[in-house]
Amino acid sequence: MGGQTCYDINFMPDRATATLTAVLVDDEQLAREELTYLLREFPEIEIIGTGRNGLEAVDLILKFEPDLAFLDIQMPGLDGLGVARRLKESDAELPHFIFATAYDEYAVEAFRINAMDYLLKPVERERLAETIERAKRALQERQKAGSAAAMGGMMDASSGTAVAQPVRSAPQRTKLLVRSQNRNFIVDSQDLIYATIDDGIITLATANLEGQSNYRTIEELQASLDGETFWRVHRSYLVNINRIKEVVPWFKSSYQLRMDDKKHTEIPVSRMQTRRLRDLLKL
Question: Residue 112's Cα: distance from chain center in Å?
C-alpha cells in the first residue's frame, strides 16, 4: 500500500440522531463486518471509522476522538491492549475501550487498564445491548460532570475570579473480574455485595458467585467504584449499601451488617464507621 495508512472512514448521513460515536478495529474482515452489522441495529451508535490493526486504531482514535473503541486483542503491529496503553500515555481524550475477541485469557489485563467491557466472539446481540446501555450511562455521567464544571466556571467568571479548566473524570469501573474454580467470570460492579481482604487476597461476593479479585488492595478497588454505593465499613470490608439486609446490634453499642448473599454474611462495622451508620439509618 506504499507505506500509507489504509483504514476505512464511514460517515453516516444523520449524525444528529447518534449519541455515541465509535471506531471498530479488527484484522479480520469478517469479524469487522459482523460487528458492524450488529452495531447498526442500535440507532444510538454511529460508526465513524474502521481499521485493520493496532496502529490504525491509534490513528483513528487520535483523529476522531470517538466515545467508544471496539478493539480486537490479537492484531498485527500493535495489539488491542497495546493500543489502550499507548493512548493512556498521551494527552488524548480517551474513549471507552471495549474488547471483542475469541480469547478469554486476556480479560484480567483488559480490566486492569479499565476496559468498559470484554466481549467474546461470536458477539451476541443481547450481550452487546448490555454494553451499549452501560456506555450510554457512562456518557451521560461524563456530560453531567462537564456541565457542572462549565457551570462552576461561569460562576467564577461572574465573580471576576480566574476560571480553571474542567478536569477530566476517570472512567468508572462498571465490570469486575472474579476468579473462581480456575475460571474468570465478569460481573457488573453493582452486583457486588461485598469485598473482603485476608492475608493480601481480596474476595468478591455476589448473589451467585464468590471468588478472588485481581485488585491488590481494598483501597484500589474502592477507588474504582461508585463512592455513593460502596462503603468501607471496616478496614477489611467494603460493602454495597444497597445489599445490606439487616443491621444487627453487637456488643458495646456496635453493629454488624447482615448482607444479602446466600450465606447472609455478617460484617462488622468499625467504631469509626458506627457513627456514619447511625446517621445513615437514623439508628
Answer: 10
Mean pLDDT per 10-residue section of the chain, whose length is 283 residues = 47 46 93 94 90 93 86 91 87 82 84 85 92 85 52 41 40 78 88 91 93 89 87 90 90 82 90 77 68
The CATH class of the 175-281 domain is: mainly beta
CATH topology classification for 15-135: Rossmann fold (3.40.50)
Give start and end residues of each alpha helix (H) in the chain.
Answer: 29-39, 54-64, 80-88, 107-112, 125-158, 218-223, 271-281
Domain boundaries, the chain: 15-135, 175-281
pTM for the whole thing? 0.52
In angstroms, the CA 238 to CA 24 distance is 37
Q: How many Cα atoms occupy the beta-carbon half-sphere of 202 within 13 Å?
A: 21
